[in-house]
Sequence to fold (496 residues):
Amino acid sequence: MNIILLADADRTINDTFTVSDYRAEHIRTVLQSKVGETVEVGLLNGPLGTATIEDLGGSHIRLTVTEWREASRPAYEVDIICAVPRPKTVKKILAIAAGMNVRSLHFVRANRTDKSYLESPLLKEPERLPYLYDGLSQGKFTRLPVVEVHPLFRPFVEDEVPDIFADRLKLVADPSGERLTTIFSPSHQPGEVVIAIGPEGGWVPFELDLLVTTGFTPFQLGPWTLRVENALVAALSQLALVAAKESI
Amino acid sequence: MNIILLADADRTINDTFTVSDYRAEHIRTVLQSKVGETVEVGLLNGPLGTATIEDLGGSHIRLTVTEWREASRPAYEVDIICAVPRPKTVKKILAIAAGMNVRSLHFVRANRTDKSYLESPLLKEPERLPYLYDGLSQGKFTRLPVVEVHPLFRPFVEDEVPDIFADRLKLVADPSGERLTTIFSPSHQPGEVVIAIGPEGGWVPFELDLLVTTGFTPFQLGPWTLRVENALVAALSQLALVAAKESI
Fold:
């Protein structure tokens, strides 16, 4: 936890906040902060900041933010379409997406998605929130990714994707594609990118064809068969290397 | 599990193998294979292959490899130096390293390594083997990474690293560095690379200085604060994008 994530609901008055849950536990046992010491914080969907611990007694911790800093804007926005993975992997995807400042995360049922995965409570608020918060706290970001679940692949890709992601660079991870260095010219600035990540075992041909028809360019991550969560990290990392060169 | 990993100890006679553990469970419950059907296999530190199920009765499964295929050699070799993380993360690092065909993994104690982490049984054989096997089975690789543990940072980096990694391109992940696209020229073929990945919270200045003095070039992964396991995936993915262009 690299920042303590605060929400407006934690606000007592002005810049003073009170926390009593896993965050209080973290301040007490991991940071081992004392009254008068400072901790790094972030306001959910707001600025980052530095706060002073004012009261550690009892079950609550009171802290006052003494300095706010505007969170930096990403050089380009990334949205992710992800085949619904098993629930254990959903947790990881949520944390990685939040921790790598992904704007939105669209889970979609794919042919190789087990139908039971769609019933996972993790796909619903508020069950998914702790994993998103964990990712934000790790990554020092405050912007909560938008999460949506699309139970039908074809209507989502045919009807919704062209509207939601109009004028967006569209990429789909698949071993059949070229490498991102081939797809991007050195001067290419993506602006906004949507990346589709398939299920374990990959997209079936129908799905890949439909994505390509809808404007997605296949790209390959490397000579590996990666778990879904590692494919997400790999895709975001490679994109950062080829996109918006001056920004990172 | 994308291949069933076999070892010489499983061999009954010639190309016939018998398995009874988690691999038999996987063949029965996940693959739901029947007698006469084939499964993809790999021989530990040997070739890949296709095997036919011959007997599913009782607690053991007997299968005969009908085709062996030489595992492809990586276009370049990667060795990893990794600050010893918490035990939960050691498991992930072992699986990722094996699943991304890393040749060797050197855990080293860093300033920000909790001393107790060094006592983890996961750092010892045979406790670490299941995680390495899991990575190989996922990544369809058969080469077991060499794993070593170095309890003292300075003697390891000063005295051992120059010998172990002589004539190797040496990289250290650190936000102070350039991006890999700047470090690599388009025609650069690395041959062999060693990448050092720091602990949560990063290297302390003394450690980074010593690594640089020893010939490591700092490189940055992107505008994120990544968990150790995600930093490893990001580093290997970015290296694949800039290195050995024709090979992946």
Q: What stands out?
A: The mean pLDDT of chain B is 93. Chain B touches chain A at residues 2, 72, 74-75, 96, 99-101, 138-140, 179-181, 220-227, 230, 233-234, 236-238, 240-242, 245, 247-248 (CB under 8 Å). The CA atoms of residues 121 and 127 of chain B lie 6 Å apart. The first helix of chain B runs from residue 22 to 30.
